[in-house]
Amino acid sequence: MPFHIILLTLFAALLHASWNALLRGGADRLWSMTVMCLAVAIASAAIAVFLAAPAKASWMYAVLSAALHVGYNLFLVRCYQAGDLGQTYPIARGSSPILITLAASVFAGERIGLGALLGIALVCAGIISLAFKGRKLAVTSLPHALGTGCFIAAYSVADGIGVRLSGAPMAYTVWMCALWGALMPPVYIALRGANSLFTRRPGFTTAFIGGLVSLLAYGIVIYAMAGAPMGAVSALRETSVLFAAVIGYFFLGETLTARKMLACAVIAIGTVFIG
Question: Is the dihedral of CA 142, 148, 149, 151 positive or negative?
Answer without folding.
Answer: positive
